[in-house]
Specification:
Layout: H1 8-32, H2 37-42, H3 46-69, H4 73-97, H5 101-106, H6 110-130
C-alpha cells in the first residue's frame, strides 16, 4: 500500500512549483499588457476572458510538457521560464499582427480576444512539442 505513495513528494513538489509558475506567468502577463485584465474580466468583458485564458492555456502546454519530460525539479523550472519567455513572444506576435489589439480587447471585441488567445495557444502548442527532447 505505501509503495504507491513513494512518488507523492515528487508530485507535490512539481505541482506546487507549477502553481507558482502559473502565478509568475499571470503577474508577468498582466504587467506587460496595456489593459487591466482582472478589472475587465470582473466587468464581464468576454474578449479579455478569452485572451487571458488563451494565454494561460498557451503557457499550460509547455508547462505540462516540461513537467512530463524534465529530469529534475530544477530542469522543470528552467523549462518553465523558457515557456514564459516564449509566451511573451506570442504576446508580441499577436500584438504585431493585429493593429490596436489591446484597445479592441478593452472595448470588448471578442474577435480580437480570440485572435490574441488563439495565437498564444498555437505558439504554446508548438513550444510544448519542441520540449519533447
Amino acid at each position: 500500500m505505501f509503495g504507491y505513495l513513494t512518488g507523492l513528494p515528487a508530485f507535490l513538489s512539481y505541482f506546487v512549483s507549477g502553481l507558482g509558475c502559473y502565478a509568475a506567468f499571470a503577474v508577468i502577463y498582466t504587467r506587460m499588457t496595456p489593459q487591466k485584465e482582472y478589472q475587465l474580466i470582473r466587468e464581464g468583458n468576454l474578449a479579455a476572458v478569452v485572451a487571458f485564458l488563451g494565454a494561460l492555456l498557451g503557457f499550460s502546454f509547455p508547462l505540462a510538457s516540461a513537467a512530463a519530460h524534465s529530469v529534475s525539479l530544477v530542469d522543470f523550472l528552467i523549462w518553465a521560464v523558457i515557456g514564459i519567455a516564449i509566451q511573451v513572444l506570442a504576446f508580441y506576435i499577436a500584438n504585431f499582427t493585429m493593429k490596436d489589439l489591446h484597445g479592441k480587447i478593452s472595448e470588448g471585441n471578442v474577435a480580437a480576444g480570440l485572435w490574441g488567445g488563439g495565437i498564444a495557444v498555437a505558439i504554446g502548442m508548438l513550444n510544448a512539442a519542441c520540449m519533447t527532447y
